[in-house]
Design goal:
Keywords: Cell membrane, Membrane, Transmembrane, Transmembrane helix. InterPro entries: MFS, MFS_trans_sf. This is MFS transporter. There is one protein chain. By secondary structure, the chain is an all-alpha fold. The chain has one domain. Helices cover about 85% and strands about 0% of the residues. It has five helices and no strands. Helix 1 packs antiparallel against helix 2, helix 1 runs antiparallel to helix 4 and helix 2 runs antiparallel to helix 3. It starts with 9 loop residues before the first helix and ends with a helix.
């Protein structure tokens, strides 16, 4: 049985790919916005308004980026094994959980460090998916 009896319309495929790329770009923007608000603004502001030490916020900041970088090593394997939808959904659940933990326990040093780590893990899959969706021969042009 032949897979295609007619030639596929490449304009429809390009439209679907472009639509998915735009959707993923919006998701990436929202994830990075939430990450920036938490990591770059909220955590750095904590020592001035609460009794949390600068060492705790510095540790949370460092652990966030260590978790992000170390997750990049295994995320490709997880994407192949479980698929994009499951990995992205898990990342979104981790991100929302980490941010809600901070809302529920705003002055807990453990929660601040743990939520920073969870947010670092949650942001990693979207970057890997976006970088893999860019055409290889036009990667420099499309990435800016």
């Amino acid at each position: 049985m032949e897979r295609f009896l007619y030639m596929q319309d490449s304009s429809l495929n390009n439209y679907a790919n472009h639509k998915n790329f735009i959707l993923m770009l919006i998701i990436l923007f929202l994830m990075e916005f939430a990450r920036g608000m938490y990591i770059l603004s909220y955590i750095n502001f904590l020592p001035t308004v609460t009794s949390i030490a600068v060492a705790i916020t510095s540790l949370a900041f460092s652990i966030h980026f260590i978790a992000d970088a170390s997750t990049n090593f295994v995320i490709g394997f997880l994407l192949k094994k479980f698929g994009t939808k499951i990995v992205l959904t898990t990342g979104f659940i981790l991100a929302f959980t980490s941010l809600f933990l901070v809302i529920w326990f705003p002055a807990s040093p453990f929660v601040i460090i743990f939520s920073a780590m969870m947010l670092g893990i949650a942001v990693s899959p979207i970057w890997v998916i976006m970088l893999s969706s860019v055409e290889e021969d036009k990667r420099g042009k499309q990435m800016g």
